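step=encode ok
step=design start
structure_in=
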């Protein structure tokens, strides 16, 4: 069953060209979903690297230990 708009079709209702378009739409939706997941992963990595850089710039240098004799 294939739903387009609010109407449901069987494969027999559609022409070969229409079925090819349905398959292409499904393929593109899958590609888009994978790209969105990849974008989310990249954003997590960007945040991690930016946080690490920020932390490295704001860390105070350890003070030298003064030993009094």
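sequence_out=
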């Amino acid at each position: 069953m294939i739903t387009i708009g609010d109407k449901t079709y069987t494969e027999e209702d559609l022409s070969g060209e229409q079925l090819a378009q349905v398959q292409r739409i499904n393929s593109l939706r899958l590609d888009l979903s994978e790209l969105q997941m990849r974008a989310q992963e990249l954003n997590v990595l960007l945040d991690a690297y930016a946080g690490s850089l920020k932390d490295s710039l704001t860390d105070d240098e350890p003070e030298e230990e003064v030993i009094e004799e």
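step=design ok
step=annotate ok -> The radius of gyration is 28 Å.
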